[in-house]
């Protein structure tokens, strides 16, 4: 599943604006000192207040012009972005909700999305709703990004190593050994899948399931080989010739190398990108692994399941320190829910990995699914919490 | 064809069931049926006309769609059923009973010829629309059971496998179909139930689907409704008022297919049961949801600005690519992406309880009417399945294609031109 904002190469915070048409403006309450209305025209920026008490501020932004506009709340230096909403089309409306501590700030509308925008000073006064600012927030962000990058690169290296070994076994007809390595090699793919997906075209070449292939299209990658190694349940299946095996094996290895090069290249992360990656991995579990639709021939779905959860947990733990300064309750909930899910997975561990999906009882699948939902729901709030979105 | 008896059902609505009053007020408005929003327009739609009702008819709120397999090889039995179905449909769409006698008017020693659950209910704008699947002309084994194989339209072929199709054969295909739409679900179900009963021995129900909350408007007089993703859907739909566009994109014309001139004035119906991964969708940020659809959730305006019916500007740059993303749904299904082709969508939301994992077994029962499915529907569905960001949240579980014969005049049976 393509995750929509994962490898964000420019460290920009991403807002989740509420777009609406100005005919039905979200109510901006003038009597609320923390509620500010902004009208952005093609040559103006009308901000209804010049100051507000510290706390959670709401900027209700309407585009009354013809050009696409943006709105920024910047730090006193006019450079650091506290919050922003982008891509507001003509006549549309968007909302920025952001927790802001006492201090001096700058507002900016950017009709046409270019230049410094139309700026004005904005001050936030002290209040009993004081927002905590962690001294070392930037340090935490930097550490989270660096750690996650290292994790991704390490998994990609391991994927390449094991894929090389796997395709050699497969090409030389050592099917038992290839089958034994299959799920184990894929683990490294599944742990960083959203990153692989951010390189657009590689994912369908490497990880497409048969059901996802359009009539007349080529089907390549892991699952093509999976079917050839586990043909028992494939009605009327014709085994691949050594020459065909060679083709699919080399193709998979070629794309794995490409992925590894990309990951070792100019890649950087943002905390919201990491958080979105964690959310995306849980989506993968919910829509593929927990239903047994990922590994329909080998039934090694639980290996993938565990790997997706690993990847999500690593991503979460990377930003946990930062989350604890912003929403300690959410941090606690997520920690507990990861543990609950892991307990269920541990119960399915066997000597050589996990129970095969087709050997799970419906009750066990349901239990796993419940735990996935229990984790995915609060996890979907992680990105917003890290960005101080209330 | 005899006039239907003045049924108890019609009596209770305070009017005689009127038959074949084109566009006129056929029956009095329901005296406040709790579930039926009283809207403007006629209270019943005529069954007869140039085209079958239920296509450009303003979409009603409820659906019961059924697909049937023909279980006889007798051409006569099939024609006899179509005649009987036509008569029953004339009566029921006018607010009358399924059979000529009525639910309680017959001999006490006999089962009634109408099942009775619509006693006291008005016509509820019921329409019944009949279609013929590819397997009616030629079975999967290639058998021509009814001597009509040489009249099978060239484009009436089972739809190809699209990416992300996880079709359940038990919910796909069919020799015949009936689309029952009404403002009251009890009326739609009553119609299908009674038509299925009439068909016992000749046909068997293969699958059926209930739907609610129409997801498209087929008339400019209707608000665009919302699908279960919470978005307005089908804003750019073909509308009944656009007669030139209907002639171009919707109705089959004489000469479209020399083998199938019997279909002139008819159309093709593509049905797709699309399960939505509701729980996963609900965890997406508002912005991501809007980027996936390409419209705002609040008003349905395209992300390029304006109001709901403003034309989307697909070239307008935004921060990091076009403001309407390249994989946004609205872009991929828009006529400008599909060679100017437009379709008439007439889908419904469905919730069939919950699945084994406690997720809603819910989604969109997509129905589209087109003049040429291979030219209009297949490329659009392929494009969508390959590139649409929304596909992540969809699973296609049922699929069928039918040729929808033209409308009938009084005294004709539905599909008569095929067997003439």
Briefly summarize what is shown.
The complex is a heterodimer of chains A (about 400) and B (about 425). With about 400 residues, chain A is α+β, with helices and mostly antiparallel strands.
What does this 3D model show about the protein?
The complex is a heterodimer of chains A (390) and B (420). Chain A is α+β, with helices and mostly antiparallel strands and 390 residues long. Helix content of chain A is 46%, strand content 17%. Chain A is built from eleven helices and twelve strands. In chain A, the strands form three sheets. Chain A has a five-stranded mixed beta sheet, with no helix packed on it. Chain A is elongated and about 75 Å long. With 420 residues, chain B is α+β, with helices and mostly antiparallel strands. Helix content of chain B is 20%, strand content 19%. Chain B is built from ten helices and eleven strands. In chain B, a hairpin with a 2-residue loop joins strand 6 and strand 7 (321-322). Residues 1-8 and 10-39 of chain B have low confidence and may be disordered.
